[in-house]
Amino acid sequence: MANIINIHEAKTHLSRIIDEVAAGSEVIIAKAGKPMARLTPLTGVPRAKKLGLLKGKIKVSDDFNAPLSEDVIADFEGR
Q1: How far apart are CA 52 and CA 49, in angstroms?
Q2: Against a cut of 0.70, is the pTM above it?
Q3: CA 71 to CA 67: how far, in whole Å?
């Protein structure tokens, strides 16, 4: 069951409320007795990016950045 607290209490005790939510609790914030927001713990932790995953699997030619020949440029430009 979720704890229901008013917005003033939420502002006053935000740090404590965040700790409760992080521990698995659910908190509903109400304004004038009407539920307005639900705080729930985040599920799952973002995975760290693994750099170099495709190392050795992709080959970039030595002339990759070399200027294009005039006939190739003409083909791209529709001439």
Answers
A1: 10
A2: no
A3: 12
